[in-house]
Design brief:
Number of strands: 13
InterPro entries: TF_DEAF-1, Znf_MYND
Shape: elongated
Helix content: 25-40%
Organism: Mycena chlorophos
Strand content: 15-25%
Pfam families: zf-MYND
Keywords: Metal-binding, Zinc, Zinc-finger
Protein name: MYND-type domain-containing protein
Structural class: alpha+beta
């Protein structure tokens, strides 16, 4: 069992940053980690109704049109793809982020499987840290093809720690050495091993009992499990596991607001007092501030076309962007689902950018040609938060009064009169309140 602090740290590595003093019980935190890992391997695509029956799928290696296994297990989103395209390398150095390390380890396992033994079997593997404090003995026994881009790695594994290595693992290693089977070592930090073990334990319970792996004599005590490609959480998943609609400190149901600024909610006086040192500066800024309610749904003026925005959280593989577009846009061409709320009722910083007559692209030109005749000033604005889990286009024609109130702040206080940062609070599924008085410090994003 992982400690409470360990679970919170692993969740943070996945982009799930819960309140620093959350009072969620250990069982709930543990459940949230399990569900986040299921989402990271996009489990419901492959196993919508457990158990998994591997035998119904063909061998990955039988179809020569399939890519290498190392490429099949690779998953990344638009934001990461941009970093790679710019030549900036990996977002995290080795050991800095357990979840990123886990994804690299699974790619290492896939790479090892691409080079097979003379008889077609895959090399035995050990996944361990550099000091061999902890390790997982592992052998991929089969790889099945869910679809052209999704392999299912079926494997046997056993976990050991130094000074307490089981007799079965020792026998397994000796058997491989005696039979001159080269073993591949994949280096993995202790934290990423914790994530990998959690994945293997969860998936081991999802294999149909009718499936029988071909075990060697030394693998009788090894556990049968499977691995799927693992990638970053989508915006929807990030919102779901980060959502805190309660106390800004602990997440418990909030019963009151800060009496000075009215923007931050608490469950009781204890949490409010505990948060005062951190909240004091923001409270002074927001006290007595003027807020403007701004709706962000309504017909698009782009001749019936909805300006769909690709999010940096969108997964590049398995047509995730196209599927999200279909889900987000109704038959009328207008948005049917509100943006995910990752901030609950707490204030957060948004960037507001006004449309410019000099904006490039067909959609911008079409919009400007159609609207500048009646609205010579900016007629739309793009609003998003730092993670871009919230990103909307707002059209002036849908609520001219509210639009002008926010646009005036940008023109008078923003950079070159076209963009600035503001405090905001989600006040509804399709509305937000924006602070018009005190702006946050300029953000570097």
């Amino acid at each position: 069992m992982l400690t409470r602090d360990a679970i919170l740290e692993l969740l943070r590595s996945m982009g799930v940053d819960l309140p620093r003093k959350t009072k969620l019980p250990d069982t709930e935190l543990d459940k949230r980690l399990s569900k986040a890992l299921d989402s990271a391997q996009y489990l419901t695509r492959v196993v919508p109704d457990p158990p998994l029956s591997p035998s119904v799928y063909s061998s990955w290696f039988a179809d020569r049109s399939n890519s290498k296994l190392v490429d099949g297990v690779r998953r990344h989103n638009v934001g990461e793809a941009t970093i790679f395209a710019q030549g900036n390398g990996n977002p995290f150095p080795l050991g800095a982020n357990a979840f990123w390390d886990l994804r690299q380890t699974i790619m290492g396992i896939g790479d090892a499987c691409d080079t097979r033994l003379a008889n077609g079997d895959m090399y035995p593997l050990t996944v361990s840290d550099e000091e061999d404090t902890s390790g997982i003995a592992m052998r991929v026994v089969d790889v099945r093809r869910f679809d052209k881009n999704t392999p299912i790695l079926l494997l046997l594994y056993h976990h050991d720690v130094r000074n307490n290595v089981s007799k079965d693992t020792i026998a397994w290693m000796r058997d491989n050495i005696d039979n001159e089977r080269s073993m591949v070592k994949v280096t993995a930090t202790l934290k990423e091993q914790e994530l990998l073990l959690r994945l293997l334990q969860q998936n081991s319970k999802r294999i149909a009992k009718t499936y029988r792996a071909k075990r060697r004599s030394t693998e009788s005590s090894f556990t049968l499990s499977f691995l799927l490609p693992v990638g970053p959480l989508t915006a929807r998943d990030t919102a779901k596991y980060n959502t805190n609609n309660g106390c800004t400190v602990c997440g418990e149901p909030a019963k009151s607001k800060c009496s000075r600024c009215g923007a931050v909610r608490y469950c009781d006086a204890v949490c409010q007092k505990d948060d005062w040192k951190a909240h004091k500066a923001l409270c002074s800024k927001l006290q007595g501030a003027k807020w403007q309610s701004l709706p962000f749904n309504g017909p698009s003026p782009l001749r019936g076309m909805y300006a769909f925005t690709v999010n940096k959280f969108d997964i590049v593989q398995h047509q995730d962007i196209e599927k999200r577009k279909v889900e987000a846009i109704g038959a009328s061409g207008e948005p049917t689902e509100p943006p995910e709320n990752t901030h609950g009722a707490s204030p957060f910083i948004i960037k507001v950018q006004l449309s410019s007559p000099n904006a490039q692209g067909h959609a911008h030109q079409l919009f400007n040609d159609q609207t500048t005749r009646t609205m010579p000033e900016a007629s739309s604005m793009l609003i998003y938060d730092q993670r871009r889990t919230f990103e909307v286009n707002v059209w002036a024609q849908n609520d001219p009064v509210s639009f002008k109130a926010v646009a005036d702040v940008v023109r008078n206080k923003g950079d070159r009169g076209i963009k600035t940062f503001c405090w905001a609070v989600r006040s509804g599924e399709w509305t937000m309140d924006i602070c018009l008085d005190d702006l946050p410090d300029w953000q570097n994003w």
